[in-house]
Amino acid sequence: MSLLKCENLSFAYDGVTVVRDLNFTVEEGNYLCIIGENGAGKSTLIKGLLRLKKPSAGKVELGEGLRASEIGYLPQQTQIQKDFPASVREVVLSGCLNRMGLRPFYTRAEKERARENMEALEILELQDQCYRDLSGGQQQRVLLARAMCAAQKLILLDEPVSGLDPVATRSLYALIARINETAGLTVIMVSHDIDASLKYASHILHLGQEGQLFFGTQKEYRRSAVYHDFLGDRAVPMWKHDFPNRVGRAAPREEAEPTETESRVKVHSGKKSSRRLKKVSSAGTINQSQKGASDNRPEGPL
């Protein structure tokens, strides 16, 4: 059974439908990006998946024993939330509140979970600092660690890089991808960054004013008319997505071209990047007929 399934799902405000007839499924381990123009209902959909907004039609089914209270959530921040007077450790630990029930204290296991998440997101040394004294990028890492404390299998992110500088943006995207790949958490992310969505996502859900325009894999989306209509001249020609790499296979997702934001900065992302760069550099040579078509194309992100 799918981790999450939406059938003919619609949402309305004051009788006016803002999201209509959504049909898609999310399997365990997927990385789904929800994209589209402003006002298409992306954030409303996230609220519906969290049971914070009741559907006007259709239904949302949770599978694999998942409950709504076990979904991690990183919302868009308000200015008041940015000034919250609590320590980093307290904010991260608050992600365990849903599972506490009437219990008035955190267990040793919950404290250890919070510590592990802070360590994984490289904010352990900040645990005693006040949340409101942190930079925007650091605050987002804290909220992501909090969401991980709440999440059992699924995490929802609503424009997590909004307002961040290019360096913090690249770093947070890399952390989210690592969580998806190594921690096994399924990710659903709302984003206006189409370049990053195509680089990291395994699946794309594209919403428009008229409803659902596309749902499928990242590769299927790149070949769709919706993608080319949406990006216009910025759309990458279809033949480039199928051009073989040096070992004769379709280029894997993690070796996609750098996004526009990432091309401006260079951030080290640990052993994984080193292994990938080593793999690219030792993959051998290409034949002369392929060389002309691939000389000007980057082999992978720096």
Summarize the structure in words.
With 302 residues, the protein is an alpha/beta fold. Helix content is 35%, strand content 20%. It is built from 12 helices and 9 strands. The strands form 2 sheets. It has a 6-stranded mixed beta sheet, with helices on both faces. Strands 2-1-4 form a 3-stranded antiparallel beta sheet, with helices on one face. β8 (203-208) and β9 form a beta hairpin. α4 (108-120) crosses α5 (136-150). The radius of gyration is 20 Å and the shape is globular. The model is unreliable at 241-302 (pLDDT under 50).
Give the key terms.
302 residues, alpha/beta, six-stranded mixed sheet, three-stranded antiparallel sheet, 9 strands, globular, disordered C terminus
Q: Report the portion of residues in β strands.
A: 15-25%
Radius of gyration (CA) equals: 20 Å
The rough form would be described as globular
Task: Kindly name the structural category.
Answer: alpha/beta
Total DSSP E strands: 9
